[in-house]
Amino acid sequence: MIELEHYNNLKQELTGQNVKLIAVSKNQPVDKIKYLFNLGQINFGENKAQELTSKQSELPSAINWHFIGHLQTNKVKYIVPFVTLIHSVDSFKLLKEIDKEASKAGRIVDCLLQVYIAREESKFGLDEKELYEILTSTEFNQMTHIRICGFMGMATYTDEHTIVRNEFKYLHKLFFRVKTEYFASKPEFKELSMGMSDDYKIAIEEGSTLIRVGTYIFGNRVYV
Ligand SMILES: *Cc1c(COP(=O)(O)O)cnc(C)c1O
Fold it and tell me: How many CA atoms lie within 13 A of 107 on its CB side?
């Protein structure tokens, strides 16, 4: 049921590298998640708030849940009490809501800012201007219940490796610039979430620290 050989190869590839595997379990049954968890996989990623909360309630509390999809502000309150890392903060409005709900829940929630790097209009993310608007605002600097741990990006869906590589390179550069300018005294600003089943190798070569891999280890998703 699981692509066990793929999973083991991937773990092997990551040995000795500063790269963590997020197993993207969206549209996959809880049995498969349990199976991987029993093999020692702790980090799982979901892209829908409802699916995440329902799976979280059924599965071991030792699992670290990563939210990787577009998050609507009215769904923030459902995931904030337990989520490990929100990779997909794509607006200031969303960040404010996370800060507010995290405060209510008595937590500090780790977040990544999702940066728009692809050539596809359909993908979410902040452009540089929006990113700097957040980073320089007084309101952002007064937030007490979020912790920005780095960036997330999704490359263009294409077979042309050069395009994908250049998009990852761009994000890595931007990451270093912003780290120097705004997070020099913040050791938690260290994550670069990039790379999926088709492009994780390129992403690792370009400095990824978190790869989000679904299909390659779980097989095709089941849409019901
Ligand atoms: C689904 C998804 C993934 C995993 O995609 P695969 O191609 O199945 O590895 C990674 N990141 C995000 C944001 C996703 O929505």
Answer: 15
Any ligand 1 atom below 6 A from CB of 216: yes
- Secondary structure (3-state) at 156: coil
Could you tell which of 21, 164, 168, 212 is best to mutate to test the pocket of ligand 1, judged by most ligand atoms within 8 Å of the CB?
A: 212
Render each residue's pLDDT in the chain as its tens digit; 224 residues: 899 999 999 999 999 999 999 999 999 999 999 999 999 999 999 999 999 999 999 999 999 999 999 999 999 999 999 999 999 999 999 999 999 999 999 999 999 999 999 988 777 899 999 999 999 999 999 999 999 999 999 999 999 999 999 999 999 999 999 999 999 999 999 999 999 999 999 999 999 999 999 999 999 877 65
Residue with CA closest to ligand 1 atom 10: 212
Does the pTM of the predicted model rise above 0.90? yes
What's the Cα-to-Cα distance from 111 to each of 11, 83, 161, rounded to whole Å?
Answer: 25, 10, 28
3-class secondary structure, 90: coil
Mutation test of ligand 1: which of 32, 66, 68, 70 has the most ligand atoms closer than 8 Å to its C-beta?
68
Structure tokens at 88: 């997909």
